[in-house]
């Protein structure tokens, strides 16, 4: 497949990235106004550019299904959305109605992908993004799921050293830059290009990208030791300042950082808060527009920057279901964006448009190549089993997965299992005749994490449960309720001080002894302290069994017909 409107760029090693980019821009900036082309009349003093952004695609080539599919439009209509062929068609339509356009992605292009992408190490998704003609992409945490070496392979091309090329005879890699201004190698060398620049009719438009400084907490075991993340606000400001110094005054920020709102719970623009919102509003006034990612809901807001000037901040719908669109005006004299002339909207990728033929062919090929594995029946369920939380934070699906992990760890002495809700990526959706196939199970547990069984004392287990309430830098409290297996019950008092909210912890109906050892089944992400659960890192007697996905598939087969577990393992103290 081919990329449309693609800018030719030279791929650089991480060691040379920053120096080469700066030298190139110094040379270009020295050219000064000549880069803008021939003299123009005063009436031709401005230029309109359409900026497009997608985010959190997660390798979703087919239209997402079940709870991940629908979007509620401003008029209240609920419509199915997404799919690579429809996304590509809408990008074409939006480009065709503008004289100049640039398309960005704000990261998490792949990772926790459906089987049609994951089975081929996300090579089909990279091919699709090349076809879209991405101008630049930010790096999200999920691009790093398989480590920095695999990230670089998908970036630069080449077959996997052990698995080869799974989707075709060769693999050329991404034909667009993957950016992060604050992702560093352990020795401090930039891990990627910190910025890129495109020229629109002679006017440079720079793009800066950053992830949250605590992104390491969301990375899997081993990966978080391969890279580190500098303070995002300081790095954004420094990089924007460098671009401005080099004569690039129109600056776009791709910010892969969310606000921790659940889907459907996000407030209006005037009530937004959280870490992503803080960075988007406090970033350097040199930044003209911000596209964000890692948020559950789309939005289109305007906030004052630190100098009091209006700045558009947008987030598109995830999984290829939406495109953020900002039409900006460039002043030819200043080569900057005229902020108060910006117009913006979020376009839903509905299915009432003719799909793009090439993108449809790529998707069909990937789906066909995975059909046998994806369609394999693994269980039976009378109805969908969802991630919808109760007032305690429990979900029926989370409890089901924890029970599966307890069963998988039984041979290694597991008495309890706990799993993180972020590891459950979709509701369990059986077919109309109640069949649960492998593809449905994979959509629930796409990480395929190894399962560990570890030993914690009763006191350590209580401290793990206390870490479900995590203070943030902005003074708010982040609540991450782990799904407990049926063997574990306890109480939460949300009115108590943090660190003293957990009581009545029982295993199989018997209150735990703070000094006694207990065997706990957890995925390796948690075992290495992921999601802020650092107490797990003090566990002893590590043993490992099958992966979380394999455990789930085995449990579905043995326990069918599956019914949603009750959400009664945690009790709230009023």
**CATH class label of the largest domain:** Alpha Beta
Percent of residues in helices comes to 10-25%
Instruction: Quote the beta fraction.
Output: 25-35%
The secondary structure category is alpha/beta
Q: Based on DSSP secondary structure assignment, what is the total number of beta strands?
A: 30
In the predicted model, the low-confidence regions spanning at least 5 consecutive residues are: 1-20, 22-43
Report how far apart the termini are. 59 Å
By oligomeric state, this entry counts as: single chain
Quickly give the CATH architecture of the largest domain: 4-Layer Sandwich
Shape: globular
What is the number of independent domains? 2
The CATH topology name of the largest domain reads: Purple Acid Phosphatase, chain A, domain 2
Overall residue-averaged pLDDT value: 90
Question: In summary, what is this structure?
Answer:
The chain is an alpha/beta fold. The protein has 13 helices and 30 strands.
Task: Lay out the secondary structure.
Blueprint: H1 14-30, E1 46-54, E2 70-72, E3 78-80, H2 84-96, E4 101-105, H3 115-118, H4 123-132, E5 136-138, H5 148-156, E6 178-179, E7 183-184, E8 195-200, E9 203-211, E10 228-229, H6 232-245, E11 250-256, H7 275-282, E12 289-293, E13 299-304, E14 310-315, E15 322-331, E16 336-337, E17 343-348, H8 357-374, E18 377-380, H9 396-409, E19 416-419, E20 435-437, H10 438-444, E21 450-457, H11 458-466, E22 469-471, E23 477-479, E24 483-484, E25 488-492, E26 502-507, E27 510-511, E28 517-523, H12 524-527, E29 540-547, H13 548-559, E30 570-572
Parallel strand pairs: 1-4, 4-5, 5-6, 9-11, 11-12, 12-14, 19-28, 25-30
Antiparallel strand pairs: 1-15, 2-3, 7-10, 8-9, 13-14, 15-16, 15-17, 18-20, 19-24, 21-28, 21-29, 22-23, 25-26, 26-27
Helix pairs in contact: 2-8, 4-8, 9-13
